[in-house]
Structures are given as structure tokens and as C-alpha cells.
Design goal:
By secondary structure, this protein is mainly α. The protein contains 15 helices and three strands. The protein has helices at residues 2-13, 39-57, 66-85, 117-120, 137-153, 176-191, 193-202, 206-216, 222-229, 238-254, 262-267, 274-287, 294-309, 314-328, 337-350, and strands at 25-32, 89-99, 102-112. Residues 15-20 have low confidence and may be disordered.
Amino acid sequence: MKRIIVASLFLVLGSSAGWSASTATLAGIDVYRSDRITADDIRARYGEPIKSLVDKKNRLDRSKNSEKLAQDIIERIEDDIKTQWKVPFAKLVWTESSEKEGRLAYITIDVVEGKDERIRLAFRLPGDKSFEDPQGLFALWDKYTELGWSLVRSGEVSMSRTECRSLFCQWGDPKPELKAMDDKLAELAGSNEKMLVNILTNDKDPKHRAAAVYVLAYLPSGNKVAHLLTPALLDPDMTVRIAALRVFGDLAVYHTEVYLPIEQIVAAVDFPNSEERSKALAVLVGLSGNAYYTPGIVHFGGDRLVDLLRLKQPLSRDLAYTVLTLISKENYGAADYEAWQRWVEKTRSKTRPPAATKPEK
């Protein structure tokens, strides 16, 4: 069951689906991680712009300009929140969900308060160097990914995961042309390991750094890959952090012998963007069947998991609930916040977080 949950989540979140026509009804507004701004504040100040945003989202199939207009509304709201409440980070995230009531939409306002900036925005500075594509590896990775998605869209390849040469596998029953690229990536990754690590650390191009994450996953040692990719969780660009979390997600589910850096992964549950938080939660779902990681999840992230239960937006809320139920074996309701907080505090008082070493097999 756990494997199905994680595989399904990465199917939904693994790609950049882009904009699509919507007929969704706005079902809720959340403000995440602000003790000053409430959903009522957002409704009161931005009621008309939000109504216009819903309209633009529901007319993307009829107006080529609606995409731009919707994004303009989002950016105006974000800028005004930063000015009005003097916060260093604010982002409006629109998500949709098919539920029994129909197609529902949710708005999440991700906020980083000034007092939390040094912790929640503590990413390293970007690199300042430019590197050539090592032996065409990045171009090959892009071609491999583009071909894979093309075959998925045409129905020639499924998203049911099968083994590949990497520790991060995306395609089911790969066609010969995909397999040939997979083999070539595996062949070249080892001989370019040092350069790939250098690019991941020092290249100023985030596309190169993200590609380096995926290509490094072709190294044969899972523990080495996890070690090399851990610094990417503090990359200044979200796409690089998400790339690392996607690889960790596969390692958590399909390579359980690999030690994963639980403190750094749990920290990502409180990253500023909803998308990367969902990725981190997916990794925790994969790890939640391993009791070794339970103390780390509770010590480093228990309070945040309870915070996420309070969201109306179902993806993060339901993932947080799944993690809590799996690690606790309790059956409290998702809305029983006080019971979950008591469980977190009780468990935290009786356990120690794991040491930052590889566990015994």
C-alpha cells in the first residue's frame, strides 16, 4: 500500500504538467506558516482578484490570454502580500483535486515570516562558474526524459515503474530506444562522477545542477548517491531541491537498504514552496514503514506534520496524515489535531533522534 501511495504521488507531481483548462470550484484558502496572516485576511483584501483568478483559470480553453492574465493576478497578490505584511517570501499556489463533490480548487498562500527567514530560507549561495556538458550527458538526459514523456502521452509506455540502470526510474516497460539511452547514461555517469559533483556544487546554471542530480543517480552505490545528493537539498533553486527529493523518494521505497539523511529530508517538509513540501512528504511516506526513521521524523518534523493536517488543500494534508498514521499505528481522525500533538510530544519525550550514520543492516 505504501509503495502504491508513493508511486502514485510521483506520477502526479513528477512532471511539469503546465497550464490546462479548468472547471474547478474554489473550495478553500490556506495560509501556511504565518502567525499574523489568516485566510480571512486574504479573502477580505483579495476577494475580487481571487474571483477574477478563478474565472481566468476556468477559461484557459477559450482565451489564449487567460494564462497570462491569471499569472499577472497571482503575481500582483504575491507582491502586495509582501508589502502589506512585510514578509520576505509569499507565493500563491493554485491546486486542483477531483473529489466526490466534483473538481475542486484550493489556494495556498505560502509565507515565510521575517523571524523565520534565517531558518526557512537558509539556502546556499548559487555557484558562479560555467561548465560544458560533460560528454553530452545533460543533452542525453533531456532527450531521454522528453522521449519518455512523449511515449507516455502516446500510450506506448506506462508509468508503472520497472527497474532501470538508475536508482531513480520513471518508465515502465521501456522501448529499445529508451533502454539504449538508459544504458548510455549508466556507462558515462561513473567516469564523469567528479565533474558532475563539481557542477552540482559550483555551476551557476540550475538546469545543469538539476541534470547532475539525475545523472548521479546512475552511480551503483545507493549510499554514495544519497551522500552526494544531500547538499542539493540546500540548493538555492527549487528545481534542484525537487530533483534530489525525487531521487530520495525512489531510494526510500525501492532501495530500503540505503541510509537517507532524515534530518535534512524532514527539514524540507517546512521548505517555503508547497510543491517541494509535498515531495518531502512523499519521501517520508516511503520511510514510514522503517521504525529506524520514526524518532527522526517525530523529533525534527512532528510539529510541522500536525500543522499540515490543518490545511484544506488535500494533497499535503492527506500525505501528512498518512505519515502520522503509519509511524504511530494510531487511528486518530485527521482533524483531531490535539490528539496528534499529544502523540508527537509524548513520543518525542521517550525517544532520541537517530545518529547521522548508516544504520545496521
